[in-house]
Amino acid sequence: MKIKKFTFNPWQENSYAIYDETGECALIDMGAISREDHEELTDFIESNDLTVKYIINTHLHIDHILGNYFVKSTYNVPVLAHENDEFLLENAPAYAEQIGFKLDNPPPKVDQYIDEGDIIEIGNCKLHIIHVPGHTPGSVLLHCAEEKMLLSGDVLFYESIGRTDLIYGNHTALIKGITGKVLTLPDDTKVYPGHGPETTITHEKCNNPFLKHMC
């Protein structure tokens, strides 16, 4: 499995394309909003002869969905996300206006709900869904055990964790989910977060100031 990171929009949000030798591809947390963002994304897909199968959202905060309309319009593929975050889509246009950011088109609806224990197949890779609420009620992580790869969204960052001061945030639930479901993954699992640089499970066990050191 290969992974390509893009950093899009004013929030410096990490969007990912994951794919393998079959050419099947999933686009994760598409924050592409500008014309330049769109061109960078489509050029990469075309130059690697990829077939987009899904748009997958780890959660539905506005910085992670800004590109969903463009991607769905371009590739006509389903949007996958957790049901508990759907209210964030409904509030997105109003929230965008409040922060001085105009959405030309409303984000598309969720076509398929995903939840704890679900498996999404991309080529020869199986993405296991891990539900960890706290940053948002529907935050999920995508784990490919065979590749020792974890897409953590805004749950876990390099030496940090997701904010819990936003609407329906829950610090206790977030810490419980990270320690009980995420830090129990193999130590050499590489973590690809929604913002900032990559990390590993063992690094966060030993260095994350928000977590009890477990190394």
Write down the CATH class. Answer: Alpha Beta
Number of domains as seen in the coordinates: 1
Order of the strands making up the biggest sheet? 1-2-3-4-5-6
Please tally the helical runs, counting DSSP H or I stretches of 4 or more residues.
5
User: So, CATH architecture?
Assistant: 4-Layer Sandwich
Strands, total number: 14
Poorly predicted regions are none
On the 0-100 scale, what is the average pLDDT?
Answer: 95
Largest sheet: 6 strands, mixed
Taken in chain order, the helices and strands follow as: EEEHEHEHEEEEEEEHEEH
Overall geometry: globular
- Assess the beta-strand content as a share of residues: 25-35%
Fourth CATH level, the homologous superfamily: Ribonuclease Z/Hydroxyacylglutathione hydrolase-like
| Terminal residue distance | 28 Å
Rounded Rg: 16 Å
CATH topology: Metallo-beta-lactamase, Chain A
Percent range for helical residues?
A: 10-25%
Content-based structural category: alpha/beta
Please provide a written account of the structure.
The protein is α/β, with parallel strands linked by helices and 215 residues long. The protein has one domain: 4-Layer Sandwich (Metallo-beta-lactamase, Chain A), CATH 3.60.15. The chain is 25% helix and 28% strand. It contains five helices and 14 strands. The strands form three sheets. It has a six-stranded mixed beta sheet, with helices on one face. Strand 7 and strand 8 form a beta hairpin. The longest helix has 13 residues. It is globular, with a radius of gyration of 16 Å. 43% of the residues are buried. The model has no long low-confidence stretch (mean pLDDT 95).
